[in-house]
């Protein structure tokens, strides 16, 4: 008999499911969805690539620079890349609208490029990367970051030692 | 009377996961059972030794969906022992929070499925609707409904701010009266009692002989709980009540699970209110030296043991785990003996078998 009471109450309350896709549904803050990459902040440490179990993240060297590619179809949305990224250059957005037709599968990617640059100090070819925050004693200023991005590996070391 | 053999599974409407039972019956009564496993063997143990230690945090989480927090938790605890990493107090509390949230959702799923197997569909849907509160909690706090991704080596990956803490307490207040109501139905409803009491009995002596774990052991009078016997994370700072029953039937196991849901709600309140300040995880990725370690935790189904051996490289040399379902499903041979054919699915469900964990 006690269940009849619940039955009557549930009838009065109406459906408890969301009317999606015809209406709104619940998307909590912090949901792990589509991945976004910010090349400006990437230090090319490739931690994200190392911790990715799906092998969804791949860095490759090209003449234009270091290419970042994330294929959403093997991403497990575990968020380890975001957790281990020292500069928050990679993060999972709340966008979960990832259903797509088979013909669009190669478009379900996140691309990024860390461009090839010429070192402003010595003229050597290098890849523009952001500094790892742990390399600085004090938080780096925007000017320092910009200067760092235009240096080669050797000149970056000098820069961090304060020798430039 | 002559006997004949009927197959149950590997694909069967009443089984959640593939498992093959060769059941010998005499009329309507089960005479003996032969269990054949291996339908969802994916070679995860081998795969773990081919992936990096950090990748495996996610890989262990994908072994099974219902214990998806216990696997990485035990794995991380073993790695932490090898690396000598100490988890911060806040990290320990948050690990226990994740553990209890998963336990509530897992137990409610099992008692819901029990109603479904009885044919009480409206109660099944009601139980699943109550569980939805915990699903929303997981989605909001961790960002995913099943694979919550709470653990990392050295701590946890999520944090609870003051708003989230009060919201979480509010959700527990919403959940508790509904659980009380559910307990009332499971204790008094005739359809439930007639179908579940006195079937699939495992006596206390048999429970010890089979070394069953988790709610199956506790329903047969064995008060064994890893959270009490060898406390991990924050459980040494809490008093964990271990409910036991002696009947050892399908109904007792469901009631143990419902009591544990109640206890978990109380534990969560304590954990959230006493949450210490401090970091949740180490700032740097720890170095993992060569070594070996064993860690165990109380998964929703019982004691989960992890063995990890590393050799100083970035990949573990061997990872091996023992899941509670391994002993529990062996006990099915005793539980099913003398049962009616119509009760087979109900008895199998009562051990809450996790085939993916066991066959990996």
Could you characterize what this model shows?
- The complex is a heterodimer of chains A (164) and B (360).
- Chain A contains five helices and six strands.
- With 164 residues, chain A is α+β, with helices and mostly antiparallel strands.
- Chain A has a single domain, classed as Alpha-Beta Plaits (2-Layer Sandwich), CATH 3.30.70.
- The mean pLDDT of chain A is 86.
- Chain B has 15 helices and eight strands.
- In chain B, the strands form three sheets. Chain B has a three-stranded antiparallel beta sheet with strand order 1-2-3. A three-stranded antiparallel beta sheet of chain B has the order 6-7-8. In chain B, strands 4-5 form a two-stranded antiparallel ribbon.
- The longest helix of chain B is centred in the first third of the chain and has 30 residues.
- The relative contact order of chain B is 0.20.
- The mean pLDDT of chain B is 90.
- Chains A and B meet through α1, α2 and α3 of A and α2, α5 and α6 of B.
List the helices and strands and how they pair.
The complex is a heterodimer of chains A (164) and B (360).
Chain A: H1 2-13, E1 35-37, H2 47-51, E2 57-62, E3 65-71, H3 80-84, E4 90-92, E5 109-118, E6 125-127, H4 142-149, H5 153-161
Antiparallel strand pairs in A: 1-4, 2-3, 3-5, 5-6
Chain B: E1 4-8, E2 20-26, E3 29-36, H1 44-48, H2 55-61, H3 70-83, H4 89-118, H5 121-141, E4 151-152, E5 155-156, H6 162-188, H7 190-196, H8 204-210, H9 215-219, H10 226-229, H11 250-273, E6 291-299, E7 302-310, E8 316-322, H12 324-330, H13 332-336, H14 344-350, H15 355-359
Antiparallel strand pairs in B: 1-2, 2-3, 4-5, 6-7, 7-8
Share of helical residues of chain A: 10-25%
pLDDT < 50 runs, ≥5 residues of chain A: none
What's the N-to-C terminus distance of chain A? Answer: 83 Å
CATH class of chain A: Alpha Beta
Predict the CATH topology of chain B: Cytochrome-c3 Hydrogenase, chain B
Mean pLDDT rating of chain A: 86
**Distance linking N and C termini of chain B:** 40 Å
Read across the widest sheet of chain B, the strand sequence of neighbours is 1-2-3
Biggest sheet of chain A, in brief?
Answer: 4 strands, antiparallel
Query: So, CATH architecture of chain A?
Result: 2-Layer Sandwich
Strand order of the largest sheet of chain A: 2-3-5-6
Low-confidence stretches of chain B: none
Overall tally of domains of chain B: 1
Using the CA coordinates, give the radius of gyration of chain A.
Answer: 23 Å
Q: Give the helices and strands of chain A as they follow along the chain.
A: HEHEEHEEEHH
